[in-house]
Amino acid sequence: xxxxxxxTPQVTLMLLLITWRExxxxxxxxxxxxxxxxxxxxxxxxxxxxxxxMPASLIxxxxxxxxxxxxxxxxxxxxxxxxxxxxxxxxxxxDLTKDVRVRLYTLLSGPCTxxxxxxxxxxxxxxxxxxxxxxxxxxxxxxxxxYHNMNYMMCNWEKSLKMLANSQQNLFFWHGELEQAExxxxxxxxxxxxxxxxxxGISLPDFTDIIFCVNGTSPEGPLIPTxxxxxxxxxxxxxxxxxxxxxxxxxxxxxxxxxxxxxxVPGHCLKWEVERYQKGPDGKTTPVYVITKQMSLTxxxxxxxxxxxxxxxxxLQKYCADKSFWSEWSRPACHPEKNEIxxxxxxDMVPVYVYIAVAIITILVLLLCVGVVLKVRSSKQVKKPDxxxxxxxxxxxxxTVVEA
Length: 404
What we know:
Radius of gyration: 43 Å
Shape: elongated
Structural class: alpha+beta
Distance between the termini: 187 Å
Number of helices: 2
Largest sheet: 5 strands, antiparallel
Low-confidence stretches: 1-7, 17-27, 339-349, 382-404
Mean pLDDT: 81
Strand content: 35-45%
Number of strands: 25
């Protein structure tokens, strides 16, 4: 009995295999792979169009549905991508500085195959070598784009150490809403060299692949181009948190509150990192970091003699973006606040007011003195002619009397 029960599954499995093989090959139909693969470049910075033809052996099998399995090597993800389609054309993004590799199978089903889908045992492959070449070692480095607070985007790069003098770099971009690639609207220039692009005022779509190409020319020939594909919602950097409030709560607790930055970034998409550091009498600080989704935090306050300071920054959560950038840290909020620190600005301003008052008084005194001097001088000038006339008149009078 034990032997019988062991053989029964084996026999059943063999029957299933035989039935499956008969359903695959009883019709005697063999499937050939597609023919005449062509890769077209419409000038969309590597967004290529792949076309192919039906195998000639299947042209007369009009009653049988045909599909195609396309496999291409995604150079941005460094992996193979597989899609199935009934069409004979497909568009995909490639890095034009690397090989473009495409494979195609034919899939046949329907009455020609007794309702079973058959895949061609072989495939047609096309490998297209890159045509964009340039002076070795001249490709740009460290290309980074930042979507600042979902308001405007800035892209920056570093020139290659081997970039030749008198070289000129250019940036072009393309996405599905553009008919052709466009050039950077505003270049960022440092020491006469283009180091970035400012997209202020340019509307770029979310959740859409945007292709960037940085190329250029030099006296010795073209520079090696660099191709980058990204989606802007994955490159958001929130604005700095301006308002951070620190208060003491009951039971020796510190209550920290802050407001989200103003802008288009949705509040529910943000997560926060709080940095707490304590500054002791010796001047040393010990930082502690806390990640939270709330905009408030309650922490125990134990060391009365130590100064507790907090800073806050934000970043998009993973369910809103695959990745993003941390914002800048906010200004620190500290407890306790030392009185001398609060009074320093006032004491610094006291001498200024004293100096201003002394200066005003000095100027007034000088003006008063000048006015008095001028008045005395003018009065003397008026008195001198009168005394002279009086003297002359007196002398004439004496002479007249003597003569008489």
